[in-house]
Amino acid sequence: MQEQALTEGQVSFFHTFGYHVFRNLFSPDELAEIRREFDESMADQYSHRPYDGSERHWTVMMDEDTPLFASLMEDPRFLEPARQLFGPEVLGIIVDANRYTGNTGWHPDTVSPLQYGVKFAFYLQPVGADTGALRVIPGTHRLFPFTEEFSEGVRSAGLREVPCQVLESQPGDVVAFDLRLWHASHGGSADRRMCTVVYYNNPKTPEEVEFLRRQGGDNVKIGLDAFRPRRDYLYSARWISNPNRNPDRQQWIDRLHEIGYFDAQRVIEAPPAA
Description:
single chain, Jelly Rolls, alpha+beta, six-stranded antiparallel beta sheet, 8 helices
Protein backbone atom coordinates (compact mmCIF):
# COMPACT_ATOMS: atom_id res chain seq x y z
CA MET A 1 0.00 0.00 0.00
CA GLN A 2 1.52 3.32 -1.09
CA GLU A 3 0.91 6.19 1.31
CA GLN A 4 0.34 9.59 -0.27
CA ALA A 5 1.54 12.07 2.34
CA LEU A 6 1.51 15.64 1.07
CA THR A 7 4.62 17.80 0.99
CA GLU A 8 4.58 21.22 2.66
CA GLY A 9 4.31 22.75 -0.81
CA GLN A 10 1.31 20.58 -1.69
CA VAL A 11 -0.44 21.46 1.56
CA SER A 12 0.17 25.15 0.86
CA PHE A 13 -1.11 24.75 -2.72
CA PHE A 14 -4.29 23.04 -1.47
CA HIS A 15 -5.03 25.74 1.10
CA THR A 16 -4.35 28.45 -1.51
CA PHE A 17 -6.15 26.98 -4.54
CA GLY A 18 -8.41 24.32 -2.97
CA TYR A 19 -7.40 21.08 -4.70
CA HIS A 20 -4.74 18.42 -5.30
CA VAL A 21 -4.54 15.45 -7.70
CA PHE A 22 -3.03 12.12 -6.64
CA ARG A 23 -1.87 10.04 -9.61
CA ASN A 24 -2.06 6.22 -9.66
CA LEU A 25 -3.30 5.88 -6.09
CA PHE A 26 -4.98 2.53 -6.80
CA SER A 27 -3.33 -0.58 -8.20
CA PRO A 28 -4.88 -2.47 -11.16
CA ASP A 29 -6.04 -5.22 -8.79
CA GLU A 30 -7.69 -2.70 -6.50
CA LEU A 31 -9.41 -1.05 -9.46
CA ALA A 32 -10.80 -4.41 -10.58
CA GLU A 33 -12.21 -5.03 -7.11
CA ILE A 34 -13.58 -1.48 -6.86
CA ARG A 35 -15.43 -1.96 -10.16
CA ARG A 36 -16.82 -5.32 -9.02
CA GLU A 37 -18.08 -3.91 -5.71
CA PHE A 38 -19.48 -0.84 -7.48
CA ASP A 39 -21.45 -2.90 -10.01
CA GLU A 40 -22.84 -5.36 -7.47
CA SER A 41 -23.83 -2.72 -4.92
CA MET A 42 -25.51 -0.45 -7.46
CA ALA A 43 -27.43 -3.38 -8.94
CA ASP A 44 -28.62 -4.35 -5.47
CA GLN A 45 -29.49 -0.84 -4.28
CA TYR A 46 -31.43 -0.04 -7.45
CA SER A 47 -32.98 -3.40 -8.25
CA HIS A 48 -36.34 -1.59 -8.06
CA ARG A 49 -35.23 1.09 -10.52
CA PRO A 50 -32.38 -0.09 -12.79
CA TYR A 51 -30.11 2.58 -14.23
CA ASP A 52 -31.25 3.81 -17.66
CA GLY A 53 -29.26 7.03 -17.90
CA SER A 54 -32.21 9.30 -17.12
CA GLU A 55 -31.27 10.13 -13.52
CA ARG A 56 -28.35 9.93 -11.12
CA HIS A 57 -27.94 6.95 -8.82
CA TRP A 58 -26.15 7.22 -5.46
CA THR A 59 -25.49 4.95 -2.50
CA VAL A 60 -23.33 4.57 0.61
CA MET A 61 -20.45 2.06 0.32
CA MET A 62 -19.45 1.41 3.94
CA ASP A 63 -20.65 -2.10 4.80
CA GLU A 64 -19.32 -5.65 4.67
CA ASP A 65 -20.75 -6.31 1.20
CA THR A 66 -18.26 -3.74 -0.20
CA PRO A 67 -15.16 -4.37 1.95
CA LEU A 68 -12.64 -2.49 -0.17
CA PHE A 69 -14.82 0.62 -0.37
CA ALA A 70 -15.61 0.30 3.33
CA SER A 71 -11.91 0.36 4.18
CA LEU A 72 -11.10 3.59 2.34
CA MET A 73 -12.04 6.12 5.02
CA GLU A 74 -9.57 4.46 7.40
CA ASP A 75 -6.95 3.92 4.67
CA PRO A 76 -3.83 6.06 5.36
CA ARG A 77 -3.72 7.07 1.68
CA PHE A 78 -6.85 9.13 2.38
CA LEU A 79 -6.79 9.68 6.13
CA GLU A 80 -3.24 11.00 6.45
CA PRO A 81 -3.64 13.73 3.78
CA ALA A 82 -7.01 14.67 5.33
CA ARG A 83 -5.25 15.08 8.69
CA GLN A 84 -2.49 17.14 7.11
CA LEU A 85 -5.09 19.46 5.63
CA PHE A 86 -7.61 19.74 8.47
CA GLY A 87 -5.86 18.53 11.60
CA PRO A 88 -5.42 15.22 13.46
CA GLU A 89 -9.02 15.18 14.71
CA VAL A 90 -10.60 15.39 11.24
CA LEU A 91 -13.84 13.37 11.11
CA GLY A 92 -14.43 10.57 8.61
CA ILE A 93 -18.00 10.96 7.32
CA ILE A 94 -18.86 8.82 4.30
CA VAL A 95 -17.75 6.70 1.35
CA ASP A 96 -20.21 6.69 -1.54
CA ALA A 97 -20.67 5.82 -5.20
CA ASN A 98 -22.47 7.66 -8.00
CA ARG A 99 -23.68 7.09 -11.53
CA TYR A 100 -24.05 10.52 -13.16
CA THR A 101 -25.89 11.55 -16.29
CA GLY A 102 -24.80 14.61 -18.28
CA ASN A 103 -23.41 17.87 -16.93
CA THR A 104 -23.07 18.93 -13.31
CA GLY A 105 -23.57 22.66 -12.73
CA TRP A 106 -21.36 24.97 -10.67
CA HIS A 107 -21.67 24.60 -6.89
CA PRO A 108 -19.73 24.17 -3.64
CA ASP A 109 -20.42 21.13 -1.42
CA THR A 110 -21.40 23.11 1.66
CA VAL A 111 -23.80 25.95 2.31
CA SER A 112 -22.04 27.44 5.34
CA PRO A 113 -18.55 28.61 6.35
CA LEU A 114 -19.24 26.76 9.61
CA GLN A 115 -19.07 23.32 7.92
CA TYR A 116 -16.18 22.34 5.67
CA GLY A 117 -13.62 19.64 4.96
CA VAL A 118 -12.16 17.64 2.08
CA LYS A 119 -13.65 15.33 -0.55
CA PHE A 120 -11.56 12.73 -2.38
CA ALA A 121 -13.14 11.80 -5.73
CA PHE A 122 -12.15 9.10 -8.20
CA TYR A 123 -13.63 8.00 -11.51
CA LEU A 124 -13.92 4.51 -12.97
CA GLN A 125 -13.35 5.70 -16.55
CA PRO A 126 -11.03 8.31 -18.09
CA VAL A 127 -12.47 11.83 -17.86
CA GLY A 128 -11.38 14.95 -19.72
CA ALA A 129 -12.52 18.52 -20.29
CA ASP A 130 -15.60 17.53 -22.31
CA THR A 131 -16.06 14.01 -20.96
CA GLY A 132 -17.00 14.77 -17.37
CA ALA A 133 -13.74 15.70 -15.63
CA LEU A 134 -14.03 17.76 -12.48
CA ARG A 135 -13.45 21.44 -13.21
CA VAL A 136 -12.77 23.85 -10.35
CA ILE A 137 -12.50 27.61 -9.84
CA PRO A 138 -9.22 27.80 -7.92
CA GLY A 139 -9.25 29.75 -4.68
CA THR A 140 -13.02 30.15 -4.39
CA HIS A 141 -13.02 28.25 -1.09
CA ARG A 142 -11.24 31.29 0.36
CA LEU A 143 -14.11 33.58 -0.65
CA PHE A 144 -16.71 31.75 1.43
CA PRO A 145 -19.42 32.85 2.24
CA PHE A 146 -20.21 33.98 -1.29
CA THR A 147 -22.19 37.04 -2.30
CA GLU A 148 -25.43 36.49 -4.18
CA GLU A 149 -23.96 38.38 -7.13
CA PHE A 150 -20.99 36.00 -7.36
CA SER A 151 -23.11 32.87 -7.01
CA GLU A 152 -25.67 34.00 -9.57
CA GLY A 153 -22.97 35.11 -11.98
CA VAL A 154 -21.18 31.76 -11.88
CA ARG A 155 -24.36 29.71 -12.16
CA SER A 156 -25.76 31.79 -15.03
CA ALA A 157 -22.61 31.49 -17.13
CA GLY A 158 -22.09 28.50 -19.40
CA LEU A 159 -20.09 25.64 -17.95
CA ARG A 160 -17.24 26.26 -20.40
CA GLU A 161 -17.37 30.05 -20.08
CA VAL A 162 -16.30 30.25 -16.43
CA PRO A 163 -12.49 30.57 -16.02
CA CYS A 164 -11.45 27.34 -14.34
CA GLN A 165 -8.97 24.49 -14.02
CA VAL A 166 -9.97 21.14 -15.57
CA LEU A 167 -8.68 18.18 -13.54
CA GLU A 168 -8.43 15.39 -16.09
CA SER A 169 -7.92 11.94 -14.60
CA GLN A 170 -7.50 8.28 -15.39
CA PRO A 171 -8.85 5.32 -13.40
CA GLY A 172 -6.57 5.01 -10.38
CA ASP A 173 -6.17 8.78 -9.93
CA VAL A 174 -7.85 10.61 -7.04
CA VAL A 175 -8.82 14.30 -6.93
CA ALA A 176 -8.98 15.97 -3.51
CA PHE A 177 -10.80 19.29 -3.11
CA ASP A 178 -12.07 21.58 -0.37
CA LEU A 179 -15.83 21.25 0.16
CA ARG A 180 -16.13 25.03 -0.15
CA LEU A 181 -14.51 25.08 -3.62
CA TRP A 182 -16.79 25.84 -6.59
CA HIS A 183 -16.72 22.91 -9.02
CA ALA A 184 -18.66 21.40 -11.94
CA SER A 185 -18.28 19.01 -14.85
CA HIS A 186 -19.06 19.23 -18.57
CA GLY A 187 -19.98 16.42 -20.93
CA GLY A 188 -19.47 12.90 -19.73
CA SER A 189 -21.29 9.77 -20.68
CA ALA A 190 -24.77 8.77 -19.63
CA ASP A 191 -23.05 6.66 -16.96
CA ARG A 192 -20.20 8.63 -15.38
CA ARG A 193 -19.04 6.62 -12.40
CA MET A 194 -17.57 8.67 -9.58
CA CYS A 195 -16.84 7.56 -6.01
CA THR A 196 -15.97 9.76 -3.04
CA VAL A 197 -14.45 9.65 0.44
CA VAL A 198 -15.43 12.63 2.62
CA TYR A 199 -13.97 14.08 5.82
CA TYR A 200 -15.35 17.02 7.82
CA ASN A 201 -13.40 19.47 9.93
CA ASN A 202 -13.87 18.68 13.63
CA PRO A 203 -15.96 21.65 14.84
CA LYS A 204 -14.39 23.91 17.46
CA THR A 205 -16.99 26.58 18.23
CA PRO A 206 -20.57 26.14 19.51
CA GLU A 207 -21.82 27.48 16.16
CA GLU A 208 -19.79 24.92 14.20
CA VAL A 209 -20.97 22.11 16.50
CA GLU A 210 -24.61 23.08 15.99
CA PHE A 211 -24.25 23.21 12.23
CA LEU A 212 -22.66 19.74 12.12
CA ARG A 213 -25.41 18.40 14.39
CA ARG A 214 -27.99 19.50 11.81
CA GLN A 215 -25.90 18.13 8.96
CA GLY A 216 -26.78 14.54 9.85
CA GLY A 217 -30.43 15.07 8.98
CA ASP A 218 -29.49 17.19 5.97
CA ASN A 219 -27.35 14.34 4.61
CA VAL A 220 -30.38 12.05 4.80
CA LYS A 221 -32.31 14.52 2.64
CA ILE A 222 -29.61 15.13 0.03
CA GLY A 223 -28.75 11.42 -0.16
CA LEU A 224 -31.49 8.97 0.73
CA ASP A 225 -34.46 11.21 -0.03
CA ALA A 226 -33.05 12.62 -3.25
CA PHE A 227 -31.91 9.37 -4.87
CA ARG A 228 -34.05 6.68 -3.17
CA PRO A 229 -31.75 3.63 -3.03
CA ARG A 230 -33.11 0.52 -1.30
CA ARG A 231 -31.25 1.22 1.93
CA ASP A 232 -33.08 3.62 4.24
CA TYR A 233 -30.20 4.72 6.49
CA LEU A 234 -26.76 6.28 6.11
CA TYR A 235 -24.85 4.23 8.68
CA SER A 236 -25.53 0.57 9.34
CA ALA A 237 -25.77 -0.71 12.91
CA ARG A 238 -22.74 -2.88 12.17
CA TRP A 239 -20.64 0.09 11.04
CA ILE A 240 -21.57 1.97 14.20
CA SER A 241 -20.63 -1.07 16.31
CA ASN A 242 -17.06 -0.87 14.91
CA PRO A 243 -16.55 -4.66 15.05
CA ASN A 244 -12.82 -4.46 14.29
CA ARG A 245 -12.31 -1.86 17.01
CA ASN A 246 -10.60 0.55 14.67
CA PRO A 247 -9.44 3.47 16.86
CA ASP A 248 -9.87 6.07 14.11
CA ARG A 249 -13.44 5.01 13.41
CA GLN A 250 -14.21 4.93 17.14
CA GLN A 251 -12.93 8.49 17.52
CA TRP A 252 -15.26 9.63 14.74
CA ILE A 253 -18.25 7.72 16.14
CA ASP A 254 -17.72 9.06 19.66
CA ARG A 255 -17.37 12.65 18.49
CA LEU A 256 -20.37 12.50 16.15
CA HIS A 257 -22.47 10.98 18.96
CA GLU A 258 -21.32 13.77 21.27
CA ILE A 259 -22.31 16.41 18.73
CA GLY A 260 -25.70 14.81 18.00
CA TYR A 261 -24.98 14.22 14.31
CA PHE A 262 -26.52 10.72 14.55
CA ASP A 263 -29.72 11.87 16.29
CA ALA A 264 -31.91 12.60 13.25
CA GLN A 265 -34.11 9.83 11.90
CA ARG A 266 -32.53 7.43 9.38
CA VAL A 267 -28.98 8.61 9.97
CA ILE A 268 -28.39 5.29 11.77
CA GLU A 269 -30.05 1.99 10.84
CA ALA A 270 -33.13 1.41 12.96
CA PRO A 271 -33.02 -1.63 15.28
CA PRO A 272 -35.23 -4.56 14.22
CA ALA A 273 -38.77 -4.53 15.55
CA ALA A 274 -39.25 -6.56 18.72
